């Protein structure tokens, strides 16, 4: 054996002997946290994940924006380290999980009526009209009920093409929760859920899919999270709230609604049709779903560190993306819940 062969043999022996240690060090340096779920908060979560990589370069986040229904299913199946959902998990679904799942609220946002009309005038809608459109009872843009709310605007004699989510969605949960509160007929026939049997309309996958469908379809009206309407330069309607005031969806009107919320200890709550003259009526909180008892201690520790950063430094970034940060009192309660996560 030549000296070169002897040297190569020694190196090979070292790789075999210490390979697991080298692999462990590499894995530790590049720990990937896998998450999946809501599209509603995807813009803010993407921002957080990018910024947090600067805080802790050893952690990378792989987040699949697949809808809240998918997020709930994947956290239950333990195929991800965290789920994300705008709608709270039901008692039935929580019971299917192999351990206790905690709801960790992060930010709040608004669902808006985005549309595609000639000239895209800014107009007003009320509960009766929104329910009528999504029940398939108000079929044309020049319907007297729409015109009656908007004197001075001439609406076209054009079919309303309703666009809704095709996937399990927390945005849908918020939308149908609102409709169930303001329409007895909707509550009886359709109800509140992340996925429902729609009386009418076309489906789009994710907030991205609905926004794309509305933009491409003349006469379309669909519901998307506010930031998606802003990013896509789509007009959206002012909506009459429970106090009888027409309110524009915004950071301020979402914050006003959040301030009225009665929030239970398990953080499963609704903000739709909130009281108050300045509250926007179709908004809700979104959050992460994590196991109280973490399966992998090293990952659990990193996840807790990220959650504490998100609920402090991360909240400061919410307003720039038109999400409402959690009220301070709620934030303190959520941070205490994070402390209950066990490794």
Can you characterise this structure?
The termini are far apart. It is elongated, with a radius of gyration of 24 Å. It has 13 helices and twelve strands. The chain has two domains: 33-109 and 285-338, 3-Layer(aba) Sandwich (D-Maltodextrin-Binding Protein, domain 2), CATH 3.40.190; 110-261 and 270-283, D-Maltodextrin-Binding Protein, domain 2. The strands form two sheets. Strands 1, 2, 3, 4, 6, 7, 8, 11 and 12 form a nine-stranded mixed β-sheet that branches. The chain has a three-stranded mixed β-sheet with strand order 5-9-10. With 343 residues, it is α/β, with parallel strands linked by helices.
- The CATH superfamily of the largest domain is Periplasmic binding protein-like II
Rg, nearest Å: 24 Å
Give the low-confidence spans.
Answer: 2-28
Note the main sheet.
Answer: 9 strands, mixed
Kindly report how far apart the N and C termini lie. Answer: 52 Å
Shape: elongated
Structural class: alpha/beta
Using the coordinates shown, work out and report the CATH topology of the largest domain. Answer: D-Maltodextrin-Binding Protein, domain 2
Number of strands: 12
CATH C-level class of the largest domain is Alpha Beta
What CATH architecture of the largest domain would you give?
3-Layer(aba) Sandwich
One letter per element, helices H and strands E, the order comes to HEHEHEHEEHHEHHEHEHEEHEHEH
Task: Write a short abstract of this structure.
With 343 residues, the protein is α/β, with parallel strands linked by helices. Helices cover 41% and strands 19% of the residues. The chain has helices at residues 3-29, 42-55, 68-77, 91-96, 127-134, 144-149, 170-182, 184-189, 206-216, 226-231, 251-258, 297-310, 328-338; strands at residues 31-37, 59-65, 82-85, 101-115, 124-125, 161-165, 202-204, 220-225, 238-240, 246-247, 283-291, 324-325.
């Amino acid at each position: 054996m030549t000296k070169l062969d002897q040297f190569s043999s020694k190196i090979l022996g070292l790789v075999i002997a210490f390979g697991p240690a080298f692999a462990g060090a590499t894995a530790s340096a590049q720990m990937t946290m896998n998450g999946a779920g809501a599209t509603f908060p995807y813009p803010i979560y993407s921002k957080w994940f990018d910024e947090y990589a600067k805080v802790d370069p050893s952690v990378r986040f792989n987040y699949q924006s697949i809808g809240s229904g998918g997020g709930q299913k994947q956290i239950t199946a333990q195929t991800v380290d965290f789920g994300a959902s705008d709608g709270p998990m039901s008692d039935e679904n929580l019971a299917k999980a192999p351990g206790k799942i905690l709801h960790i609220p992060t930010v709040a946002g608004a669902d808006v009526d985005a549309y595609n009309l000639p000239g895209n005038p800014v107009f007003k809608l009320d509960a009766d009209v929104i329910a009528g459109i999504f029940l398939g009872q108000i079929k044309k843009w020049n319907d007297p009920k729409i015109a009656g709310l908007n004197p001075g605007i001439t609406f076209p004699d054009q079919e309303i093409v309703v666009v809704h989510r095709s996937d399990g969605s927390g945005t849908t949960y918020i939308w149908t929760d609102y409709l169930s509160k303001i329409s007895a007929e909707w509550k009886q026939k359709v109800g509140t859920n992340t996925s429902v049997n729609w009386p009418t309309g076309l489906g789009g996958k994710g907030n991205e899919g609905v926004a794309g469908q509305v933009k491409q379809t003349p006469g379309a009206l669909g519901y998307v999270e506010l930031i998606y309407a802003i990013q896509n330069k789509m007009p959206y309607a002012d909506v009459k709230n429970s106090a009888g005031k027409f309110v524009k969806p915004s950071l301020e009107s979402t914050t006003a609604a959040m301030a009225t919320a009665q929030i239970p200890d398990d953080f499963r709550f609704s903000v739709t049709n909130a009281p108050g003259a300045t509250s926007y009526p179709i908004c809700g909180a979104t959050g992460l779903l994590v196991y109280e008892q973490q399966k992998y201690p090293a990952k659990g520790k990193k996840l807790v560190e990220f959650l504490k950063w998100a609920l402090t430094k991360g909240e400061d970034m919410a307003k720039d993306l038109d999400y409402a940060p959690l009220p301070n009192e709620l934030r303190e309660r959520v941070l205490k819940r994070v402390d209950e996560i066990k490794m």
